[in-house]
Specification:
- The protein has one domain: Rossmann fold.
- Helices cover about 40% and strands about 15% of the residues.
- The chain has helices at about 20-25, 40-50, 65-75, 80-95, 110-115, 120-135, 155-165, 175, 195-205; strands at about 5, 15, 55-60, 105, 140-145, 165-170, 180-190, 210-220.
- Strand 1 and strand 2 form a beta hairpin.
- Helix 3 packs across helix 4 (about 80-95).
Length: about 220
């Protein structure tokens, strides 16, 4: 038996967090069975520029209605948005036959930002991915060691400089990652890829044996 609630987008009564009509209307990158490595798309590869990672999976462009759902989660603590976004990501960006990683590493926040916001939206989304996919969420391996400026409003070059050497590994990272071969680095939104690339480089430098995919709910690249 399904609980009746209001769709998070159109506010009409729905058996799911996002009703089936709104799900059809959301402009997603892909809606077929086979997941797509979006770095194979020339427009997205150009928007990212030079990055070290070679695989990225995302749900859609950062525009309405998904940008509103992410903003509500990130700045207003609207937790039901996380479950709805995670469900869409798993079903549309990955699919049933996706070669799933052994663990998910969410993008960390610096302690100053965490104390200000009280939560990390990437961890909240990651917990739902963990529940949906049965994959461990490693929240204690990667650390944001540098208190960076907010990336919004910075040029691509300044974004890269802002997050250079911004990440470090925890003292227990080796215990978790030495025994793995395949992980996903997860962030809620990727714009130029600078933050994801800095985090990826930190992980890949210490664990060169790891296959590391980058996952994100949205990319803000299609209008660059």
């Amino acid at each position: 038996m399904f609980a009746i609630q209001n769709c998070l987008i159109c506010r009409q009564l729905s058996e799911t967090l996002i009703c089936r009509y709104c799900q059809v209307d959301i402009p997603l990158f892909q809606q077929q069975q086979k997941p797509i490595n979006l770095l194979l798309w020339p427009e997205i590869k150009r928007g990212l520029g030079q990055v070290n990672f070679d695989q990225i999976y995302a749900l859609a462009d950062y525009r309405w209605p998904l940008n509103q759902l992410l903003t509500g989660l990130k700045f207003q603590g609207r937790l039901p948005h996380a479950k709805a976004l995670a469900e869409l990501f798993v079903s549309h960006a990955l699919g049933a036959d996706f070669n799933r990683p052994q663990a998910i590493v969410p993008m960390p926040l610096h302690n100053n930002r965490f104390l200000e916001r009280k939560y990390n939206q990437s961890i909240i989304l990651g917990k739902h991915l963990q529940s949906l996919m049965g994959i461990p969420l490693l929240t204690d391996t990667l650390i944001k060691s540098k208190a960076t400026l907010a990336q919004s409003g910075l040029s691509a070059a300044k974004r890269r400089a802002n997050v250079k050497h911004a990440f470090a590994l925890s003292k227990t990272a080796s215990r978790s990652l030495d025994v793995l071969q395949h992980i996903a680095l997860f962030d809620d939104v990727i714009t130029t890829g600078a933050t994801a690339n800095s985090a990826y480089t930190c992980l890949a430098s210490a664990f060169p044996h790891l296959q590391i995919q980058v996952w994100s709910i949205c990319l803000t690249l299609t209008r660059r």
